Amino acid sequence: MKRILLAVFSLLFFAVNQAFAYNVSHFTNDDKVLEALKVLDKAGAEEVLENLDEKSVKIIFYDLTMIDFNYSKDYAITSVDTMGNRYILLNSRYQNSPKEAIACLIAHESFHKLNRPTFKEEVQCTQKEAEYWHKLKNQVSNNTVNDLTNRLNRLENLYLTSSPENNKIADSIFHNQFYRGQLAMD
Known about the structure:
Layout: H1 2-20, H2 31-42, H3 46-54, E1 58-62, E2 76-80, E3 86-91, H4 99-110, H5 119-136, H6 147-161, H7 168-174, H8 177-182
Parallel strand pairs: 1-3
Antiparallel strand pairs: 2-3
């Protein structure tokens, strides 16, 4: 009897898990992005996936210099096309980064709600990016070191050494010339 109950419970558990798993394939046609989305789904990042769903976002790798050469080193941007479709454009130069690092970029961009981000919103997005890197970086199968993973490691360090009285991510963004020119500073 115990074996039957265990078997039924196991079957129900796996069936329920599959029923509640996100169908992440509608966000992208790119295999690498799909892998990153599956990492987020497996990590229980419902808030990220709900944000993407809410905004009906499509995610692609894109040569950001095709928009503006000044975007050459940006990691990702959120954009809206002329038809009103929302996109997360991941810089194609980071396409060979670990899927966990790409997942963190997606997490960051998913928290952008405003057409022109404020300082407060950018801090929240960056904190979420660092938080997810802290959760996911130990899953990286190789020791890939590039600009993206270096940035994520720096953000994680700021995140872990911050306190409510001393938010090091907020300080870093506030004193960064790039962000000062891009954000609606509130």
